[in-house]
Amino acid sequence: MEPxxxxxxxxxxxxxxxxxxxxxxxxxxxxxxxxxxxxLDAPRAKAMWRMLCEGGKDLKIEASGxxxxxxxxxxxxxxxxxxxxxxxxxxxxxxxxFRFKDGLIVRHDDTFGFWRWTRMxxxxxxxxxxxxxxxxxKIRKLAAKGLAExxxxxxxx
Length: 157
Fold this sequence. Notes:
Blueprint: H1 3-15, H2 19-23, E1 26-34, E2 38-40, H3 42-55, E3 60-69, E4 72-83, E5 88-101, E6 104-111, H4 114-122, H5 124-129, H6 133-153
Parallel strand pairs: 1-6
Antiparallel strand pairs: 1-2, 3-4, 4-5, 5-6
Helix pairs in contact: 3-6
């Protein structure tokens, strides 16, 4: 499959919360990076998508601007969901960069406004303190803990 088709398959699977379809697009050596989880190796990256797909009961995904050339690609995607820790609605706007090896995604970098996200996910506390390193660090620790717990208890992780 060509890189553009691989990215399209990844987001098509994500739009229906098909984590196995998503991780099938990943190379065994994939590295994922974003502002919350920071950098995840292949087992943790795959578990993260499984966790998000299983937990995102009202998750809606739309991808656009998918492009690829040679061994690189990019996409713009948006996610709408309820942040489980607060019950608040989130609309996250993400830009993704990809690198390919053997026709599969070997590097996946998502970027988004972390403070923008904290304002939606945390409400007034996020507006006031979501920009601060201690609050962002706490969110990262909670995300890492949630992923570790998912991996320890889920047979699919």
